[in-house]
Amino acid sequence: MQDISLLHGLGIKFVLVPGTHVQIDKLLADRGKKANYGGRYRITDSDSLDAAMEAAGRIRLTIEAKLSPGPPMLDLRRHGVNGRWHEISDNVASGNFLGAKRRGVVGGIDYGFTGEVKKIDVSRIKERLDRDSIVVVSNMGYSSSGEVLNCNTYEVATACALAIEADKLICVVDGQIYDEHGRVNRFMSIEEADMLIRTRAKQSETAANYVKVVGEEDISYAHNFPIKEEKEQVWVGRDFVSDYTASFRNGVGFNNGNGLSGEQGFAIGGAERLSRSNGYLSELAAAAYVCHGGVQRVHIIDGTVGGSLLLELFTRDGAGTLIARYIETLALS
């Protein structure tokens, strides 16, 4: 939070989407209840909804408290604004920015109060960003009938990134993405991420859904010519990428209702999250997806490393994995 406050003081605009699944499971366990999942989605009964609402409220209050002292440098001058100095505290804005609908019964499972993201209030979020606020978007969504619904944090984050046309999406996890040699994978182009996801799609339901939506056929990454002539190809640096474009439309959802929503949502949870047997392949699929929608860079960083956010953004090698939509190349003569 101190690093976010410092970067906010330098003029970077933040929308925070905090995760709640760990706190919800702990609250349920403390009350003698069991957390239930249907695949990657939580089955939200009345007990789980109470725990989710309490967890979301606690986390929001904690974030506001941690940001209230302001940047560690109290005499920090606002970047690009002469004569304007940072206030004593950061202004944190939260509210009902998230519209949702019930997931309902899927595959014979009634998900109860589990919600799917249907609307992001982009104008109100941008209004608060323009007023120099750090915006906190809870995973608790509100339905048209006035219900509170528990949405998956990753779906909320990817929807927000696409809806507000974010420059970056930063995913804070509890580990690293390693290559086949056991080294931290510092950088991946969207093509490299796409190929890795396809290679290992059977290890993750989220990765398999990514392949299904982006295109089941293998995408060619020729350096000199496109192999698949029937599919439009676009130059990116020296490589080709699919012409698929991810999108989120308010009131409809992902990809005009035919993409990653419903059974194909970017939920990351359940046994897949708990085991981490596939590393962070699910997060990688979410990262590649939002890159297809126009987000230029996604950073997946290890939150257990102190200062990882600053290290990732301001050092050459970073502290996590960067997935980039475009690769700029120079021709030297």
UniProtKB/TrEMBL annotation:
Top-level taxon: Eukaryota
GO molecular function, one term: L-glutamate N-acetyltransferase activity
One Pfam family hit: AA_kinase
GO terms classed as biological process: L-arginine biosynthetic process
Any one Gene Ontology cellular component term annotated for this protein: cytoplasm
Keywords for the protein's UniProt record, in alphabetical order: Acyltransferase, Transferase
Record has Transferase as a keyword: yes
Ranges for domain Aspartate/glutamate/uridylate kinase: 2-192
Protein name per the record: Aspartate/glutamate/uridylate kinase domain-containing protein
Record organism: Triticum urartu
Lineage: Eukaryota, Viridiplantae, Streptophyta, Embryophyta, Tracheophyta
